[in-house]
Amino acid sequence: GENVEQHPSTLSVQEGDSAVIKCTYSDSASNYFPWYKQELGKRPQLIIDIRSNVGEKKDQRIAVTLNKTAKHFSLHITETQPEDSAVYFCAASRGNNRLAFGKGNQVVVIP
Amino acid sequence: DTAVSQTPKYLVTQMGNDKSIKCEQNLGHDTMYWYKQDSKKFLKIMFSYNNKELIINETVPNRFSPKSPDKAHLNLHINSLELGDSAVYFCASSHHPGTGGAEQYFGPGTRLTVT
Fold first, then answer.
1. pLDDT digits (tens, 9 = 90+) for A6-49
2. Are the Cβ atoms of B106 and A45 closer than 8 angstroms?
3. Do the chains contact at B43 and A89, CB–CB below 8 Å?
């Protein structure tokens, strides 16, 4: 089955700087790549997703890039703010019910 | 106007007991899921239903039995609880992902503690 690796496991950034989280996946048939944000004690929530026919997608301060050849995708957060502090999960799927999640990345934004 | 709700939010019980967690969604979705999040925050799919039909049944002990009485509900019953079952259990729902994937909406989670 699909195996998703997420790096780094913890990332500390100064407020206003950018944060980048990278994920790799193993199944070349995967075509759907969402990112979920989970604040402490809360539920995971989708922040952005990308499909395999697109190389990059942006939504305000958040962007995701996809490299299908290398089988990796990245989340970019610009102008980080304290409310960006959370655990971020990448995931990959063949577009069916089965979403394989990475192990999560703790982002800490230092004011 | 809660989208995906779960009850109870917290569940503390002793080893060997049987317990249930209920999930309901009012989004009109026809696909529902159960995930387990362990102490290291790892999110792992347990079950998935499309239109009340079981689609995914991961390598979960058969002490765990999901039941979907209708498209809006997916309950999880756990028999003979063990210490290792302690975790946060999330219910989620989505439109049928088809072949293109679909956003999953998560419930607030049920923190299960087995003593």
1. 987 899 999 999 999 999 999 999 999 999 999 999 999 999 99
2. yes
3. yes
